[in-house]
Predict the 3D structure of the following.
Amino acid sequence: MKCSYGCGKEAFYELKNGKMCCSKSYNSCPIAREKNSKNNKGKHAYWKGKKFSEKTKRKMRQSKIGEKNFMFNRKHTNKVKNIISEINKGKRCGHKNPNWKGGIAAAPYCDAWLDVGYKESIKERDGYICLNPECNDGRFLCIHHIDYNKQNCIPNNLITTCRSCNAKANFDREWHIAWYTAIIQKRYLTL
C-alpha cells in the first residue's frame, strides 16, 4: 500500500485519522511536511484571521489569569531585566521613535484648553459621541485637535473622539486632518 499523502513511498503505519503513511507521524512524511509548511506561513499562521466567539475569548482570558499565568508569583532576574533593557534601549525614545515630531508634545496648550467647561461644550455640541464614523469603541470621550496645533482651540479645530480614535489619529496625520476637517465642515459649516 502507498502513502496516503502522495509521496509514493510504501506505507507501513496507520495514523489516528485512518490514513496510511510511510512515517510514524504525519510531520515526518516529506510531502505532508511540505504541504503543512505552505499552509502555515509564519509562527502562528493557523490563528491568523480567525474570529473567536465571545465565549472562546473569555475562556482564553481565564486561562491566563492569576495562578494559571506562567509568570504568576515569579519575577525577572536582574540579569534578564538588563538584557531586556539593552534590547529596547533607544528604540522608542525621542527621535528614534517612528512617531517623533520634533518634540511638539512638550508644547503648552492654549488657555481655553484648561477650562473644563469649554471642552464639555465641544462634547455637548457633538452629541457626546465619537464623530469618527468608523469608530469601533465610542467609550472614554476626549477632544482632538484636528490640525494637531495645541494653541489652536477654536471650535472648528476641535472634534470629539473616543480615546481609541484619538490614538489612531497619531498615525497618518495628513489623512486624519483631511478626514476630521471634512466631518466638521459637513456637520456644522454647510447649512
Observations:
- The chain is about 35% helix and 5% strand.
